[in-house]
């Protein structure tokens, strides 16, 4: 390729005249560019690749002007691959020339300065394109300021810190501990008192921010319509009023009345949004040695024993690779996920305000880094105070445009681990949202009987007569095999009803897109969208055409939007717990529910007594003493440090209920405690289905999954839900009780759940909320704090080589095994942690002592050879024993056998 295009730099002028054949080649270049619409602006304008500073593939000009510029100035150096004019493949011939220029630049920088860790940090932040020989502009001056600060010790004789390293350390500490600017200024003043007078330590937060400003990344402030109709961006950037509602863009210049008139000197927009371009943030992942190698992990690791431990192991990822081999051939191309959720930035007693951050995170990273806060990038900050609801697409417009550019053309990026440039592209794999936000992203209404986005029009939900709510009761038999006896059951489900239909399966992207096109749905950013979509939504579940369909590859995904397991699990737990505990206002076993029960089912034992007008107790509700026993047990529970919160604080012994439980509390209770808590109080026919749904969520949320396990879960969950339908009334089954039937399918397609649920995003939103220092300017406060946090985190990569998550706070009960002197101590007694608080004594009862003794023996690696000897003897003595019987005999007889065997 490089040899084929030497004409670009060798044949322009021959004997003082333009060479005709060179002009023909330029015409071929222009024609090539025009054949790629994604690189053409306005139909006739392309990027000018001449050597002028204002051009150099940055400025769009019409093709005739481009030709004139090329005749006069020639092509920009080393432009052998026409990446800005539609050529996507980076050829090896081109990369060799890039490597030479980068190496020369590195050598030049190394020759001119002492190349410390913080010098390298500055060079990584500015990128390989920075040319120190050019006339210094504002960006160059920032570079030189940081380089000089990296050369100067913070005071004479200090060999540990330079002015730059001290500044970034202080900034990182401020961001990590969420300290205020006033704290930073006070601490800086105190440090000044400790250091010699001629020290170079920054005086305050302003001077620190000024020194490290070159490490920051860009943010765009975009004006918005006050009614969220449009944003003044792109082709609409010059509008002075909304093209939909006609509202003015700027506030009035003259304010006040009478003699008190105030004239604004600047134009002030009614609303502004903040957009953080994703491209430079992805490029920075390849600019640092701490992360560049890790970005290739997804292609270098291999599945073990068929277990999916990462989204790259899942069929959805592999299907995408098969559809777009040109994208997957470059392993450094980035796979992204997107999540959005709203939160209240003020306390519950403050004003009503809904702020919606939109965050993007890469999936290229290994499991220990993927979905971590350090690699979550805030991209859009949808301003309040109102919920954007279906109009969120208006604010996603810049992000979608950038994602289209990253897919079609990409961006030249320097990979410091391989010391070469490459054309980085990116693709959005799916979105992660709770159920209301799912509707906002997908465009499918989650209200009414068509709320399920997988079943769509095939839903069998109905509206209850008395409760006046939608019910998904008896909506799961269609997922069972055709010969399953539950399909013919006319007693335990809707009476006199047999189910012969079968779930047709989840719709693929082409089917959904064709449905949207046939119905004529509009994107929210279209002028007539509100009127057209409102009329169409009355006849179907669609309420808009999602802006994500603008992505060229979106239809090829097997999964585009994820059901959030976190919120589904919490809602299922809440319904079961509140109903079993019969909590007023939250139980599903109400008078209306009992009144309508026998209109749908044959359960006369739960009907109203016509004599007393009372309803009989149902077997799935605990009595007062049973509730007290369970709550007392919960109150005394203790968990390992960091495993769960203190559930005892959630117990209300007076009202016999639990309150204030967070999502993770429900997660732990659902999977670990619920079967144990109810075991002694509920009949087996009721306890077993509740235990089965608990185990379903426990297996589903495992860190590694196999296809066989997920297929089994996919077959089991309809049966589990049908068993619950045989127990609870129809009012129990809202959409949240129906959605688990689709979760195993999504896990089988997209991989482990913990990469696709809302726990990491929710924790990240908490971090964003803590950046609000000025409640009068919420969005601006978050924006400034986020930019500072980005710079501090990037700098922290260089505090210790190779570890991008340092510095980390150690656990408070951490124990190092090197501190344990006794080498003969059994492995089970080597503590993973140390006790917190005062010591206490506990005297074991006989049964407790026996259980503790058995646990130690069965879990001690040093005892395992003796267990093997015992099992071998028992199998010889009783050849017909199965594994379950062998385990039972081992638990009963092994402790006494082991004592005799060792002593003999």
Describe the structure in your own words.
The chain is built from 30 helices and 21 strands. The chain has a seven-stranded mixed sheet, with helices on both faces. A two-stranded antiparallel sheet has the order 1-2. A hairpin with a 6-residue loop joins strand 16 (462-463) and strand 17 (470-471). The termini are far apart. The model is unreliable at 89-115, 131-136 and 800-808 (pLDDT under 50).
Strand content: 5-15%
Contiguous helical run count:
30
Distance between the first and last residues' Cα: 81 Å
**Oligomer description:** single chain
- Give, in spatial order, the strands making up the sheet with the most strands: 5-8-12-11-10-15-18
Question: In angstroms, what is the radius of gyration?
Answer: 33 Å
Overall mean pLDDT stands at: 84
Strand elements, count: 21
Structural class: alpha+beta
Unreliable stretches covering 5 or more consecutive residues:
89-115, 131-136, 800-808
Morphology call: globular
Largest sheet: 7 strands, mixed
Query: Helix proportion of residues, in percent?
Result: 40-55%
Describe how the helices and strands are arranged.
Layout: H1 7-10, E1 13-14, E2 17-18, H2 20-34, E3 45-47, E4 60-62, H3 63-73, H4 92-112, H5 117-126, H6 138-151, H7 163-176, H8 181-194, H9 205-211, E5 220-224, E6 254-257, E7 260-263, E8 271-275, H10 279-287, H11 297-300, E9 307-308, H12 315-323, H13 325-328, E10 334-340, E11 356-362, E12 377-382, H14 392-408, E13 411-415, E14 420-424, E15 426-432, H15 435-442, E16 462-463, E17 470-471, H16 509-519, H17 529-537, E18 561-562, H18 565-580, H19 591-600, H20 624-635, E19 651-652, E20 657-658, H21 663-678, H22 684-700, E21 705-706, H23 707-725, H24 735-738, H25 740-750, H26 759-769, H27 778-796, H28 846-858, H29 864-877, H30 883-903
Parallel strand pairs: 10-15, 15-18
Antiparallel strand pairs: 1-2, 3-4, 5-8, 6-7, 8-12, 9-21, 10-11, 11-12, 13-14, 16-17, 19-20
Helix pairs in contact: 2-3, 5-6, 7-9, 7-27, 18-21, 21-22, 22-23, 23-25, 29-30
């Amino acid at each position: 390729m490089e040899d084929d295009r030497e004409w670009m730099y060798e044949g322009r002028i021959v004997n003082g005249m333009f060479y005709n054949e060179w002009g023909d080649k330029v015409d071929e270049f222009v024609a090539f560019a025009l054949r790629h619409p994604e690189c053409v602006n306005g139909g006739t304008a392309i990027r000018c690749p001449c050597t002028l500073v204002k051009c150099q593939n940055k400025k769009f000009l019409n093709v005739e002007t481009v030709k004139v510029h090329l005749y006069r100035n020639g092509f920009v150096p080393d432009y052998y691959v026409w990446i800005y004019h539609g050529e996507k493949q980076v050829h090896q011939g081109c990369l060799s020339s890039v490597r030479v220029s980068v190496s020369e630049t590195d050598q030049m920088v190394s020759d001119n300065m002492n190349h410390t860790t913080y010098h390298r940090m500055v060079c990584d932040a500015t990128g390989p394109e920075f040319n120190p020989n050019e006339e210094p502009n504002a960006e160059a001056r920032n570079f030189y300021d940081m380089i000089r600060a990296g050369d100067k010790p913070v005071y004479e004789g200090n060999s540990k810190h330079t002015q730059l390293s001290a500044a970034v350390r202080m900034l990182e500490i401020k961001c990590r501990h969420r300290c205020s600017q006033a704290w930073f200024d006070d601490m800086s003043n105190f440090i000044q008192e400790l250091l010699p007078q001629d020290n170079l330590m920054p005086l305050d937060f302003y001077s620190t921010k000024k020194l490290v400003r070159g490490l920051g990344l860009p943010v765009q402030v975009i004006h918005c319509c006050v009614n969220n109709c449009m944003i003044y961006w792109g082709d609409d950037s010059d509008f002075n009023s909304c093209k939909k509602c006609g509202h003015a863009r700027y506030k009035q210049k003259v304010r006040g009345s009478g003699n008190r008139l105030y004239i604004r000197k600047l134009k002030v927009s009614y609303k502004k949004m903040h957009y953080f371009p994703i491209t430079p943030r992805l490029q920075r992942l390849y600019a640092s040695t701490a992360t560049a190698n890790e970005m290739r992990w997804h292609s270098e690791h291999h599945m073990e024993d068929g277990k999916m431990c990462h989204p790259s192991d899942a069929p959805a990822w592999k299907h995408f690779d098969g559809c777009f081999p040109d994208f997957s051939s470059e392993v450094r191309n980035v796979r992204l996920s997107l999540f959005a959720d709203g939160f209240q930035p003020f306390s519950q007693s403050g004003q009503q305000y809904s702020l919606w951050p939109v965050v993007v995170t890469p999936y290229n990273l290994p499991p220990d880094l993927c979905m971590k806060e350090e690699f979550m990038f805030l991209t859009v900050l949808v301003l309040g105070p109102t919920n954007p609801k279906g109009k969120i697409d208006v604010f996603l417009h810049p992000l979608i445009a950038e994602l289209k550019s990253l897919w079609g053309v990409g961006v030249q990026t320097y990979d410091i681990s391989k010391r070469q440039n490459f054309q980085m592209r990116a693709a959005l794999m799916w979105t992660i949202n709770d159920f209301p936000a799912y509707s906002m992203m997908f465009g499918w209404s989650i209200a009414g009987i068509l709320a399920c986005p997988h079943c769509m029009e095939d839903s069998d939900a109905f509206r209850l007569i008395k409760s006046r709510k939608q019910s998904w009761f008896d909506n799961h038999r269609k997922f069972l095999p055709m010969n399953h006896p539950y399909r013919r059951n006319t007693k335990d489900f809707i009476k006199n009803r047999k189910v012969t239909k079968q779930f047709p399966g989840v719709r693929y992207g082409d089917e959904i897109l064709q449905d949207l096109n046939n119905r004529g749905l509009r994107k929210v950013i279209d002028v007539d969208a509100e009127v057209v979509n409102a009329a169409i939504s009355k006849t179907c579940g669609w309420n808009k055409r999602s802006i994500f369909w603008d992505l060229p590859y979106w239809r090829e995904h097997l999964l585009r939007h994820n059901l959030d397991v976190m919120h589904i699990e919490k809602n299922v737990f809440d319904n079961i717990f509140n109903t079993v505990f019969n909590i007023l206002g939250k139980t599903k076993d109400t008078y209306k529910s009992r009144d309508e029960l026998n209109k749908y089912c044959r359960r006369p034992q739960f009907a109203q007594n016509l004599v007393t007008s009372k309803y009989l107790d149902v077997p799935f509700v605990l009595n007062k003493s049973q509730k007290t026993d369970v709550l007392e047990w919960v109150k005394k529970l203790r968990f390992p440090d960091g495993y769960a919160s203190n559930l005892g604080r959630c117990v209300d012994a007076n009202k016999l209920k639990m309150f204030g439980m967070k999502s993770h509390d429900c997660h732990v209770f659902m999977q670990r405690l619920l079967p144990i808590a109810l075991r002694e109080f509920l009949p087996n026919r009721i306890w077993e289905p509740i235990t089965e749904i608990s185990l379903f969520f426990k297996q589903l949320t495992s860190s590694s999954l196999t296809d066989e396990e997920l297929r089994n879960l996919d077959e089991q969950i309809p049966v589990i839900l049908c068993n619950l339908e045989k127990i609870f009334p129809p009012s129990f089954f809202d959409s949240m009780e129906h959605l688990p039937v689709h979760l195993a399918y999504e896990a089988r397609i997209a991989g482990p759940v913990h990469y696709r649920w809302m726990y990491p995003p929710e924790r990240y939103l908490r971090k964003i909320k803590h950046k609000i220092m000025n409640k009068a300017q919420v969005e601006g406060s978050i924006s400034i704090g986020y930019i500072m946090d980005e710079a501090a985190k990037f700098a922290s990569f260089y505090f210790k080589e190779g570890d991008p998550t340092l510095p980390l706070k150690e656990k408070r009960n951490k124990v190092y095994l090197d501190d344990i002197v006794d080498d003969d101590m059994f492995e089970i007694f080597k503590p993973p942690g140390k006790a917190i608080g005062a010591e206490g004594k506990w005297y074991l009862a006989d049964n407790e002592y026996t259980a503790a003794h058995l646990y130690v023996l069965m879990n001690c690696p040093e005892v395992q050879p003796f267990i093997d000897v015992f099992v071998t003897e028992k199998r010889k003595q009783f050849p017909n024993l199965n594994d379950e019987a062998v385990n039972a005999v081992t638990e009963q007889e092994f402790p006494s056998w082991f004592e005799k065997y060792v002593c003999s």
